[in-house]
Amino acid sequence: MTETETSTYDVVVLGAGPVGENVADRTRAAGLSTAVVESELVGGECSYWACMPSKALLRPVIARADARRVPGIAHAVQGPLDAAAVLARRNAETSHWQDDGQAGWLESTGADLYRGHGRLTGPRTVTVTGADGVRHVLTARHAVAVCTGSRARLPDLPGLADVRPWTSREATSAQHVPGRLVVVGGGVVATEMATVWQALGSRVTVLVRGKGLLSRMEPFAGELVAESLAEAGADIRTGTSVTSVSRADGVLTVVTDRGDRIEADEILFATGRAPRTDDIGLDTVGLEPGSWLETDDSLRVTGTDWLYAVGDVNHRALLTHQGKYQARIAGAAIAARAAGDPLTEAVPWGAHSATADRHAVPQVVFTDPEAAAVGLSLAEAERAGYRVRAVDVDLTSVAGAGLYAAGYKGRARMVVDVEEEILRGVTLVGPGVGELIHSATIAVAGRVPVGRLWHAVPAYPTISEVWLRLLEAYRG
C-alpha cells in the first residue's frame, strides 16, 4: 500500500525554476507558509539547459570575435577556440547538472521542497508522487502557482524520434562538437546555437522556413546576424522546410521541400515552445491539459480565485527575466489577497500588475553581433494603431563604437509615438549592445518624454552615445 502524507500550506508552487523560486521567496517574505514541488532539478530550464549554459558557451565566442576586431590584440586570437575548455566551463556554470546549491538556497527561504511529480487533484490541492513511493497531498489555503515552464516543440515528422534530434536541451548540454550540424529554425535558440557550434568547429547549416532570422525583431536585426553567421562559415537557407529526416550508420540525412539532401551528424530543431501543462492535472479543475494558461495582470488564471500561472506557462513573455518579474508581481498579489488588502491589478504599473509584459519586454540575443530590443517594433506599433515614426542611426556614427572595434557594424532604431512624444520601442544591433538595453527599457517603461531624454547626457566616448545620435536624428 502506498504511504500517504497530508500537509496544509498557505501557498503551493508547482515548479522550482527561477519563476517558482521567486514566487516562493516573495510569499515566504510576506510570512506565508509555502511548499515547492519539483520533478527535475531545482533551478529549472534556465540554470541547466537554457540561459546559463548557452551564455557560458557564447561568452568565449563573442570575446574572441570582439578581440579580433581590435588592432594590437587581433593577432593573438587567430587560432581556434579550445572546445574542451569551453565545454568544461559550461559544465561548471551548470554545477555539472547538480542542484544542491539551488535546493539549499530555496530551503534557506523557509519554503519546504517536495521532490517528485506534482499534479492538481482538485481545487487548491496538489498530490506529489515521490521517487520513494510516498504520496504527499498538499492543500493550499490561498493559492497554487503553476510555474512549470515550457518545453521544446518538435514538428510532426515521421520517424523523427528515431533519429534522436537535438532540442535546446541537447544543444546546450552536448559534451562533444558535432562535425556537421543542421539547425532548423530562425529564432533566438537557432541563431545562438548556430553561433556557438560554428565557432567551436561544426559545419553549420541553418534552415529557416521564413524570409530571414529573428523575425520578431526589426528586419535589420536578422539581416546583420545572418550576414555575420555567413561570414563565419555557416550556410543560411531561407524559405526552406524539412520534409524528412533519417539516420543510417550514424549519419543523418535531411531532405528539404526544395529537394536538397543534407548530410549531418546532428540536427537541432529550434521550432518553438509548448507549455509543460500536459500532465499536471488541469482537467481536475476544469482546464484543458497541455494548454497555455490565460491570466489577468496579477497572474491569476482566468475564471479562478486561487490558481496562478507564472512564467512561460501563461505565454505572455517566454523569457526568464519576465518570468521572475511576474513572480514578484504574483507573490505580492497572493500575499495581499491572503491578508485581505486591496490590490492595484487594475492600475497600470502598480505593485500587483504585470504591465511590462504588454509594453516593455526587453530581450538580448547573444549572437555576434548582439541584437537587443525592448517594447514594440515599428510594424507592431503600427498594427497596434499608434502614430509612430522610426528613427534609425548607423552605429558607425558613434565614436565609442569605433573605439570598441575596428570596422564596427551596427544599427539602432527608436520607435517614437509622435502624439505622446514617448518611445514605444528600441532596437539595437551591434557588438556589446546588450548592456545598453536597460537604458532603453527604462525609457520605454517609464514613458520618458523625448524632450526629457534630451537632458539624459550619455558619457563620451561610449556606445551609449547612440542615444544622442538618435535624438538628433529625431529633432532634425
TrEMBL record:
Residues 9-321 form the FAD/NAD(P)-binding domain. It is an enzyme of class 1 (oxidoreductase). Keywords: FAD, Flavoprotein, NAD, Oxidoreductase. Its cofactor is FAD. Residues 361-467 form the Pyridine nucleotide-disulphide oxidoreductase dimerisation domain. Its EC number is 1.-.-.-. Gene3D superfamilies: 3.30.390.30, FAD/NAD(P)-binding domain. Pfam families: Pyr_redox_2, Pyr_redox_dim. The keyword Oxidoreductase applies. PANTHER family: DIHYDROLIPOYL DEHYDROGENASE, MITOCHONDRIAL (PTHR22912:SF151), DISULFIDE OXIDOREDUCTASE (PTHR22912). Belongs to the class-I pyridine nucleotide-disulfide oxidoreductase family. This is Dihydrolipoyl dehydrogenase family protein.
